[in-house]
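Q: what does this look like with adenosine-5'-triphosphate bound?
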Amino acid sequence: MPHVPLLELDRVSIRHEGAERATPVDVSFEVARGEVVLILGPSGCGKSTLTLALDGLVPHAVPAALEGTVRIAGLDTREHPVGVLSEHVGMVFQDPDAQIVTGTVLDEVCFAPENQLVEASEVLERAERALKLVGLWDRRAENPDTLSGGGRQRLAIACALAMSAPVLVLDEPTANLDPAGIDEVYAVLRELASDRDHAVVLVEHNLDAAVDLVDRVIVLDADGRLVIDGPARETLRDRADELVALGVWLPVSTLAALRLRDAGVVLEPLPLSPAELAAALDAQPSLPAPLSASSPVRSTALSPRPTLATGGQTGTATGGHAVAGEHAIRARALSVRRGGRRGPVVIEGVDLEVARADFLAIVGTNGAGKTSLLQALAGVIPAPPGTVDVLGVDPARCDAGERARRIGFVFQNPEHQFIAPTVAEELAQSLQLHGAGDVEPRVGAMLRRFGLEALRDQHPFLLSGGQKRRLSVGTALIAGAPVLALDEPTFGQDRARASELLDMLRTLNDDGTTVLVVTHDLQLVADYASHIAVMGDGRLLGVGPAGEVLAGPLIEQSGLRHPPLARATRGLQRHPDWHTVTRMSQLPVSSKGDS
Ligand SMILES: Nc1ncnc2c1ncn2[C@@H]1O[C@H](COP(=O)(O)OP(=O)(O)OP(=O)(O)O)[C@@H](O)[C@H]1O
Ligand SMILES: Nc1ncnc2c1ncn2[C@@H]1O[C@H](COP(=O)(O)OP(=O)(O)OP(=O)(O)O)[C@@H](O)[C@H]1O
């Protein structure tokens, strides 16, 4: 039999209806059985769009013009319906909510194979296997809406696995997962890849997780053209500078090594993992002193701090600009139910004080209650009266306008907050809600800042994942509220955009804005936060200055893992400069990579 690739793209360009230009443009590649392919490229270059062509949603379901040819298992996607094509390709979308259609976790996983008329007993067998693999079997009777963000992501992966297709396409599958969840997903992918019978195509910003698994990387530039198609490890090493210039992520150990190289310390070969970085650093007798001086990291988080309070009190811990005792947010014995009065208690007995100008990261495993805590502190979900105080008012007792003047909020899923028909109006409405003047120039400045000028008249729902996220952060920032609460602000961002966004938050924070972020990215926490609150099972397990929490046992006790660079440099902790290395995932934003 002639060799038939599982996927075959020949000069593929895709233009969304209403979009000015095609992204991707003129892309050709093949994927064979046994391959694990990673697609990289800056935000908006067409990665998600490309994945939609890999199971026939483009051109059949998504209004977009397809040029060129896509063949799945030899079938031209133009000539075969999605139902037939989906027997060959399982998909996990960037937004897991986009694919949830039924009322229970189990029904959801059975839905697609049932539609493919798979025998009932086999459907159940596949569903059980898939749900056990992602750790959701015990929750099979629950409504998918009651799962946390990470829970819904696991469910989407289980659904794709239950289809038993030879190709699995995953768009940012681990963006909302805790370390255990990421390990589980990659263990499943590794198993699939090891039988050499499946192929996996991944869009993933978390290269630290992916680097051991992928064989090959395909890189698109900002225009959506294929610029690199090569073996994974060699490409990440040999073309690291090119990738940095494009603004895409590299493993944080690689980024740290590039920073060290700028300071005159050359590590050969370029490390791709914490273990490789550790080995390379071990061989270095000393690190250059100027590194600490030139590091953009604020020293506050590393300077001696009040001891970590594990009873849920911040004690006297304050941010760089805070006056002792002056709080931006205070919660006292905060308990919250979700899903109505009979719903489960998801936050219990939280006492927390966030000082003005703190940069607080709320971390914890999936379902720990991070989002619920952030939303209760911001008044997005009701907290019992008298338990929360934001700059002197109880968010439960004030109207939306008054709340918005105090606290800007960014949801985990940006679509939840869009209300206007265009990107520019979305920003303008946010300003008007605050009764602010100078609307047009401020909207223009924010659009430029977030690289959204060309999309000012686009409908917010039609943006790429990263663009949506930037718009949602923009609507929260534009009004200049003194407190910002952001749920996974860098989710789905390329490296250049993520650094830019975090640097902007840091500038605001330096100017006195109190910043609260929920995130799974502990490297980000190590690089930016002044304080960390660790949640577990609806309770506050501890809170304190970032340096102390990261150095202490709480991170691992709560089921998280230390950031990659901290792990890589643990053996170096005796070295006076070790901490500068642990905070080196931030590279300056390259002007070339600015898309
Ligand atoms: N509307 C709801 N009804 C019932 N339970 C809910 C509801 N929303 C969330 N929960 C439950 O509350 C718990 C905490 O959820 P939350 O979203 O706050 O966690 P999280 O730490 O932000 O998780 P993740 O990292 O996965 O986003 C979870 O067990 C979740 O299943
Ligand atoms: N439904 C749509 N209608 C019109 N334009 C769209 C639509 N979806 C995406 N686009 C545009 O197409 C381009 C490619 O989007 P896509 O989501 O494929 O990018 P991406 O590389 O996955 O980005 P990200 O990393 O930000 O998720 C973007 O400029 C986006 O604005």
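The pocket of adenosine-5'-triphosphate (ligand 2) is lined by residues 16, 18-19, 23, 41, 43-49, 455, 462-467, 492 (CB under 6 Å). The first strand starts at residue 7 and ends at 16.
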